[in-house]
Design a protein that fits this description.
By secondary structure, the protein is of the alpha+beta class. 20% of the residues lie in helices and 28% in strands. Helix 1 runs parallel beside helix 2.
């Protein structure tokens, strides 16, 4: 189950307010085991539940009248939801006042050659039309990611840089196998005594 923790507004500023609750019932022993995690973003809470065996199709997030503003937001959310233990969250910040910014800094434990090792996800609510956007950026290190959070209106750098993509493409390119040079041969007449085929 995923819920919104209203008490977080009264707690430490910036603390996450999304709560994931995992209940495991043992009918034989007549017991219920509960575990809980607090996350800054709903797809991260869903990821935590999925890692504990929850069926992604059965997840029931808290009722949210705010809709994603673009397809890209949905794509990033699905990526996070299904990312398993690939990302280790270092820190996050949830702003309880307008524009309701949320940012998360995480270390990528399995980046490809073309990907930055540190990710930032930034969510912002569009109050006028009750939508939100989720953006993703890549940084070379944690210091650069923390520096970006001082101005969240700044563009996020892409997860893959053009130079890194080019380097990865060169490394992954399989060289062409040299083919033997064949010289053309002239047509030979059929052996004597054999009729030509028609």
């Amino acid at each position: 189950m995923i819920a919104f923790d209203r008490s977080a507004v009264c707690g430490v500023p910036g603390e996450p307010d999304i709560v994931a609750v995992h209940l495991e019932r043992d009918d034989t022993a007549g017991t219920i085991r509960a575990a809980m995690a607090t996350e800054a973003l709903v797809p991260l809470a869903e990821r935590w539940l999925i890692s504990r065996g929850a069926d992604p199709e059965q997840l029931t997030p808290a009722a949210n009248p705010i809709s994603p503003a673009a397809l890209l937001t949905l794509q990033i959310e699905e990526f996070l939801r299904s990312s398993g233990d690939r990302f280790t969250v270092h820190t996050s910040y949830t702003d309880a006042s307008e524009p309701y910014d949320i940012w998360v800094i995480a270390q990528d434990t399995a980046p490809s050659l073309a990907e930055a090792p540190v990710r930032v996800w930034h969510s912002r609510r569009q109050v006028d039309d009750d939508t939100y956007t989720l953006r993703e950026g890549g940084f070379a290190d944690l210091d650069a990611a923390y520096a970006w959070t001082r101005d969240t209106s700044a563009p996020l750098p892409p997860v893959t840089s053009p130079s890194a993509r080019a380097a990865a493409a060169r490394k992954n390119t399989v060289p062409d196998i040299a083919r033997p040079h064949l010289s053309p041969t002239s047509a030979q007449p059929p052996p004597a005594g054999r009729p030509r085929s028609r």
